[in-house]
Amino acid sequence: MLKIFVIVAFILIIISLGNALFHLVKSKNEIDSAKTAKALTVRISLSIALFFLIFLAFATGLLQPHGIGAVIKNHPNNTQTNTP
Length: 84
Known about the structure:
This protein is mainly α and 84 residues long. 74% of the residues lie in helices and 0% in strands.
């Protein structure tokens, strides 16, 4: 369910970015400039919300890393300790 939400959020971010580009290219007055700014504001808001959602998902364990970072963390020769 979380992965579907992330994909939908990425699609909405891309649509908002395309909308801003459209209004930027066709801007002939201040109304189009305001529409461009509004679309970019929506994109930034969606991006920040998605970042915090992914951060919370990692913090709560809903998402688990499975790439190179997980391999390095679980490698037997990793001797990092938490001593100051």
